[in-house]
Automatic annotation (TrEMBL):
<feature type="domain" description="SAP">
    <location>
        <begin position="13"/>
        <end position="47"/>
    </location>
</feature>
<dbReference type="InterPro" id="IPR036361">
    <property type="entry name" value="SAP_dom_sf"/>
</dbReference>
<dbReference type="Pfam" id="PF02037">
    <property type="entry name" value="SAP"/>
</dbReference>
<dbReference type="InterPro" id="IPR003034">
    <property type="entry name" value="SAP_dom"/>
</dbReference>
<protein>
    <recommendedName>
        <fullName>SAP domain-containing protein</fullName>
    </recommendedName>
</protein>
């Protein structure tokens, strides 16, 4: 069946039935209306571009999304960082749990932060 496999040779498109051509085009998200010659021309474009099926693209997207999601929540040393939406349990709306800091600490933090951004 041509739906799960790609068509390696564009010349083999002439041997396919209209139903097989429509399945091939439908799997790639193309229009499936028209006569056989129109379907062959349309399928030829997808063969030349080596277009994958929509299901293959969605599977790859899901795998890449999961991989990226796992990489986002890791430090450069490989330590796992908790996901942000799981941290709201301990959050409060006031500053009662904020750590104590002096004005000098704030000044040093802002000064060092600006120096770091200059070098990056």
């Amino acid at each position: 069946m041509t739906t799960s496999k790609g068509i390696a040779n564009p010349c083999s498109l002439d041997k396919l039935t209209v139903h097989e051509l429509k399945l091939y085009l439908r799997d790639r998200g193309a229009h499936v209306s028209g006569n056989k010659s129109e379907l062959i021309k349309r399928a030829q474009v997808f063969v030349n571009l080596r277009m994958r099926t929509q299901q293959e693209i969605q599977t790859d997207d899901k795998e890449n999304d999961n991989k990226r999601h796992a990489e986002i929540f890791r430090t450069p040393f490989g330590e796992k960082i908790p996901e942000p939406w799981t941290l709201n349990v301990l959050w409060v709306c006031d500053l009662t749990h904020a750590p104590l800091f002096r004005t000098e600490d704030l000044y040093n933090y802002l000064l060092l932060l600006s120096m770091i951004t200059i070098f990056i």
